[in-house]
Amino acid sequence: MKILFLGSSKFSKIVLESLINEGFEISCVITQPDKPSGRGHKLTPTEVKVFAEEHGIEVKTYDKFRLHLDEIEGIDYDYSVVASYGQILPNAFLEFKPCVNVHPSLLPKYRGASPIQSSILNGDKITGVTIMKVAQKVDAGDILAQETLETNGEYYFELEEKLAILGGKMLEKVLKNYKNIIPIVQNEEEATFTRKFEKVDGELKPSMSSEQLVNRVRALSQTEGTYIVIENTPIKILKLRVADNNGLEEGEILQDKKHFVFGCANGSVEVEECLSPVGKRITGRDYINGHNDILTKRVEC
Prior knowledge:
Blueprint lengths: L1 E6 L2 H12 L3 E7 L3 E3 L4 E3 L2 H8 L4 E3 L7 H5 L5 E5 L7 H4 L4 E5 L11 H7 L4 E8 L9 E8 L5 H21 L33 H11 L5 E5 L2 E11 L17 E4 L2 E9 L5 E3 H7 L11
Parallel strand pairs: 1-2, 1-6, 2-5, 6-7
Antiparallel strand pairs: 3-4, 7-8, 8-9, 10-11, 11-13, 12-13, 13-14
Helix pairs in contact: 1-2, 1-6, 5-7
């Protein structure tokens, strides 16, 4: 069985690796073009491109997928697999061969660009993966398989990896039994939608509950970044936990040199890890020790 694989993220790379390990022949990989990254804005390939080239797989990168349909139609494959590719696929391509998508949510919940982060933000205890037929409308295709996964306080990268591994295992079964699967139409009335997050979404405001603050750090700290603001100065927060209720007002910082704790809407949270002013990863305790002056200040709401 020959597979045309479309993907661009770390999630995609893990799914692709699973296909290779299960003995599928990858005819070609299509991924997003190299993009500027870092302070030097050096052109950087996607993780999928790097992985595919290391395994001797042909890679194609397109700014606009729809402009290369003639070339794509000439690729020898039986099924196309999409996993976090990043471009809308035209109907003409979907008519070439069967096309399936690996989506890290229990569709129709969390359609769109950020299903994993949205699930973490909402404090979901159960998430999962859906394998579906690709349709023109985003994440609205008929469901071919669906499995759940219990969460356990994971941060984004950890949960992304777990869901990708699950998706790869599910994909193997779907592809080998594709012709015998009866697709299930999604219930449009139950559909929910996600959006891309931005840096501004990472601000941690004491007016939020402790659970909301912790979930925001789990969801966004490793991507967009999460931060508190004290006297107009942002402090990047890497790990946060719910603390004992110390009777603090919203934004009030606990007078304790051993713990970086501040009050929020329903109690307190403790900064377990953050970045120092020079960009070094340190504990909340170490930050307090080096900046005792903030004990008399407040986290801005």
